[in-house]
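ok trying this again, last paste got cut off
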Amino acid sequence: MPSKTIIEPFRIKSVEPIRWTTREQREGLLRAAHYNLFLLQADDVLIDLLTDSGTGAMSTHQWAAVMEGDESYAGSRSFDHFKSSVQDIFGYTHVIPTHQGRAAERILFRVMCKQGDVVPNNTHFDTTRANVESVGAEAIDVLLPEGGQPETRLPFKGNMDVAALEELIARVGREHIPLVMLTVTNNSGGGQPVSMENARAVSEVCHKHGIPLYFDACRFAENAYFIKLREPGYADKTPKQIAQEMFALGDGCTMSAKKDGMANIGGFLCTNDDILARQEKDLLILTEGYPTYGGLAGRDLEAVAVGLQESLQEDYLRYRIASTAYLGDHIAEHGVPIVQPPGGHAIYLDAKAFLPHIPVEQFPGVALAAELYLEGGIRSVEIGSLMFGEAAKMELVRLAIPRRVYTQSHIDYVVEIILKVWERRSLIKGLRLTYEAPFLRHFTAHLEPVA
């Protein structure tokens, strides 16, 4: 009989100290950062849950591969290792390395989209939406209706609404939809997975209308493991087999390898289209680098090649999903409203339900994230009206868990701080904007408390 206790499937070989601060110090630091946690110095953060992107710990095998990095400008053997690992999982003909996911998005949408086009997605994340809009196209979320209801429990709440996709195609015309994207797992929607059944249905709609289907594959391994756990017919398949089956339904993908690539930097763009690949590589050379390094060092290519395979190991995924749920279940037991069920890479606090006295225009998510930092030095991120403006469907605070970084005692501390904030939630005040940038304003915005 397997043990009930899910332990970290690794031993700690190197440690990094973290610095304690007092609440008084944090009050000054937060004022100096204009109440925007992105503007804090990392050394002033105790537990950093801002993002799981590029913040994980690499394995001994990855560090060994780093030492094998071939830094040749063109024709690097490290690219061959990288390409082989990517194609083993994703199966696409062309593999184009980029320095991170948003670079892949920029190249994809610059090549495929034009003014007046529409790009459907189950839910666009911030850089995806911004890159679609930067070329004059419209980013439209076509999420299952239950995906916008934090308290609703469904096994695959990240699914695309297939009927709504058909209606959108009929309304705007196939000629105005250059591609459909499916984000796995659905980050903006609470880290919720997409089922194979849904991916297959979306693929059938796309192929019927002659529209390419691309995956935003940042957290593909977590999505594959959710399918193994929750979807009939997949319990005996490996996460890699499940991922291979899903990607075979599409025509290409974008990937930030800083997530389920288990690396600190890197990404890629894949396609089966020879003509598109040539155009994309031309743009890559202009802005990123030669097609066999794409803005990455050879050592980074090696780290990603190993990390992609490690992310699919079942003992790691079992620990990853269980440790995230541990945080969500413990705070939910005390009444803290979260997006249910717990996601794969993060827990999402429902800021609107947590702080019902703060109106949306006073950014309840930002206010809650600021209070978590003041109370315990925890850095998180708002996913709501500051990040998405009028496109925001929910007011959330994401607590993203870096891979292989924090232990259970760290998470127990996070639980303790959240519960302290929950007890005094009625005292928290809203915020107002004093500065915003035209794109991706949440990264650099300045705010101040409402009097």
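PB: full thing came through this time. DSSP finds 16 helices and 14 strands in the chain.
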